[in-house]
Amino acid sequence: MSMRSKILKELEKKPRRAKELKERLGSDKKVQRTLDELLDDGQVHQHAGLYFAKAKKGGAEPLLPCTIVKLGRTFGFAARQDGKGDIFIPGRSLLGAMPGDEVLVRLAEHPRVEGSQEGEVAAVTARCDSFVGTVCRQDGRLCLEPDACPGLYLAIKKSADGGAREGEKAAVVILERGESHDAHRVGVAMRFGKAQEAKPCVKALLYEAGMSKQFPEKVKAEARAFENAEPTEAELAGRLDLRGLPIFTIDSDSTRDIDDAISLHSLPDGGYELGVHIADVSYYVRPGSELDAEAMRRGTSVYYGDSVIPMLPRQLSNGICSLNPAATRLAFSCLMRLDAAGRLLDHRFVKTVIHSRVKGVYAEIDLLLSGDTARPEYAPLEAKYARVLPQFEAMRRLYQARCALRAARGALELETSEARLEIDSEGRCTGVRRSVQGESAGMIEEFMLLANECAAKTARAAHLPFVYRVHEAPDPERRDKLAALLTACDVPYRFAGEAPTSQELDAVLKAARGTPQQAVVNAGVLRSTPKARYDAAPLGHFGLALADYAHFTSPIRRYSDLAVHRILSDHLAGAPAAELAKRYGSFADEAARQASAREQAAVRLERAADDRYKAEYMRGHLGEEADGVVSGLTAHGIFVELDNTVEGMLPAEALCKGRPVLTEGVRLSDPLTGRSWTMGDTVRIKVAAADVALGRVEFALAGA
């Protein structure tokens, strides 16, 4: 058989790289020469380093670069890398591809569902070989059921089981790949503990996400230079000394990385002088340092349960950069003057030295603001806050004025459901309750928002390369989906243009407030807008109804803010515009992309961890009944949210005798019984099951 025939025969079996063909056919030069001839003749074609046999109907087949994003036992979905949707792939056509694998997909000419995309994997071009899941037995063999694809089982090699036991959470690496999932063989890389305990499950999530509390040795070496450090007199020189002002911080009682403080002074004309004082982290974390490189890689601190994975080492995040009470600290201050109606008149940024009078706690300040002097803890708190107490009423007046301005410009007032988890000393979740924002938290949020706006205004006016926080308006497709939802909910709306304005969406939220449809409308409005992100262009913030917005106020825990500080610092120091453009042009782009990516990863991790803790808590309440609200509907069932924010599913087969009918995502109906469930309905449920390993809770109808 000629070399041409041998190569074509191999390529008809599957696409191969030149290296594989040379190894199989044993003649490097001859194989390469023949491949070149076959390419010239059109007998084969090449894509992403792979050689393919000529398409049966002539010409090169269109092969689409994709990433496997979902996998079941008998099917998968591949996301097109050009952003044009997902492709359905039958299990027999996956070539053993796993979630995260980069693949080349050949589209089917006649998909089984008209209008959909269907295809087959022609080749796996980049492999994801590490997975986290639960160790189990399948057909008598030790396997791992990956979290990324429940119902799929990867056989663990006996010689590489690492002592793993059934019911454990573990990480594995694929050691041998076959052309079907059943043929893969894996080895255990890490064991975490029992799969039905939240703490080991969260450790597995962190491992899978590549997140760690530990810093590289070079970073720790730089951080040790700041152990128990305090600013020197030389470092204080040249800064505006604000140690005489009654500056203080307000955070939760557990906060250790304190990066913002405030001061407020009422003016004779009824106006205000507001100071927002932020830790000067960029003074300590310099470009080119190991600390800076690691901070950018991490992008953000990650908060889960009662723990944190900090962006910066303890010596900075809890030490020299933290605005601890009674400590002299370097700060970057935004000093603002506002009129009696809360309108911003002018502002300036300046490097300062401050001295926080007290570490304020939201709950304590809320009590003082309430004026409930009968509470036994009121008098001790008055003493604790005596040096800053005179500012509280002015804070309240300014906050109310700023809220009125925010409402007038049409900023979206979206409701959020955040949980407060109670974790015991063993790391077990012993309580879950809804977190309610008090008045003092709202004040701090509004004052920080104003400083952030001032940072963006300064950057735009000076044409600085910058990292903006942007939030874009809904596109026409999202508008149409929201309109259909509002119609189904019988909520009035008016969208005059191709995209709704923030004022129009805020009117929708107000119309639904206090009705059973409030939660579904709130969620629908949230889905109708793209996610907020970071960008080097000043695209504005739709949700806040602001033309200029950036993140300036949290440089200990967000790299975006640290980047903003660095650029503003050089601008204030008098660096020429051309020099700033050269120094920070590409940096701003890179920092924005990285900050957006790391924020999304952190949000996914935090939500997944919360789900595990909530499921662990609910395992202690199996069989109990409670009232909940329908928070979501799919063809597979309805989601019900309890008052403590725990959400569980009621499967459709337990609700409907007939085939369920889903209407606009807001109503699930049973055509045989006539029963229906609508978003916002109250449902009495019984806790049926809780799977900590996957963070899932299942409900049943009470009394069923």
Description:
By secondary structure, the protein is an alpha+beta fold. The protein contains 19 helices and 34 strands. The strands form ten sheets. The chain has a five-stranded antiparallel beta sheet, with no helix packed on it. A five-stranded mixed beta barrel has the order 9-10-11-13-12. A hairpin with a 6-residue loop joins strand 31 (667-669) and strand 32 (676-678). Helix 4 (198-209) runs antiparallel to helix 18 (577-619), helix 14 (476-488) runs antiparallel to helix 16 (518-528) and helix 17 (559-572) runs antiparallel to helix 18 (577-619).
Query: Whole-Å distance between the termini?
Result: 71 Å
The biggest sheet amounts to:
5 strands, antiparallel
Which assembly state applies to the chains in this document?
A: single chain
The chain-level structural class is: alpha+beta
- Roughly what fraction of the amino acids lie in strands? 25-35%
Task: Using brief descriptors, characterize the structure shown.
OB fold (Dihydrolipoamide Acetyltransferase, E2P); 704 residues; 5-stranded antiparallel sheet; Arc Repressor Mutant, subunit A; single chain; 5-stranded mixed beta barrel; 19 helices
Architecture blueprint of SSEs:
Elements: H1 3-13, E1 16-17, H2 18-25, H3 28-41, E2 44-47, E3 50-53, E4 63-71, E5 75-80, E6 86-90, E7 102-107, E8 119-126, E9 130-138, E10 141-146, E11 154-156, E12 168-176, E13 185-194, H4 198-209, H5 217-224, H6 233-236, E14 240-241, E15 249-251, E16 260-266, E17 272-279, H7 281-284, H8 290-298, E18 302-304, E19 307-309, H9 314-320, E20 328-338, E21 344-355, E22 359-361, H10 362-370, H11 378-384, H12 392-408, E23 418-423, E24 429-435, H13 439-461, E25 468-470, H14 476-488, H15 502-512, H16 518-528, E26 533-535, H17 559-572, H18 577-619, E27 625-634, E28 637-642, E29 647-651, H19 652-655, E30 661-663, E31 667-669, E32 676-678, E33 682-691, E34 696-701
